[in-house]
Amino acid sequence: xxxxxxxxxxxxxxxxxxxxxxxxxxEIYQANILESLVxxxxxxxxxxxxxxxxxxxxxxxxxxxxxxxxxxxxxxDFEAIDHKPVDVFFALLVPQExxxxxxxxxxxxxxxxxxxxxxxxxxxxxxxxxxxxLLK
Length: 136
Fold this sequence. Notes:
By secondary structure, the protein is an alpha/beta fold. It has five helices and six strands; from the N terminus they run E-H-H-E-E-E-E-E-H-H-H. It has one domain: Mannitol-specific EII, Chain A, CATH 3.40.930.
């Protein structure tokens, strides 16, 4: 998790998320993660509105779900459904074969991020620990 990252573009935030994911899951290469996220975005933006995006992808070789939360210093254009810029990114990476679990995890994350108090807390967070406390 990172707070107030200086990203200026959709490409850069996806690269940042991919780098963080590689740090968590050493056996999965950043390029594979980035490719999965980019391919998903080509199908349609994962910007769900209200300054929130849930980039996600199914990754071959991944053993467990990886969740990454990143906030940016300033909101960036992410082609969200409400056309507003995004500053809260909750990325989900799931094992390639986990189709049903992927959808359930996405639904659970979307429900959490539908709570304005949780989202406001994420935006105010100064440390990853602050975000973890909100999401428990």
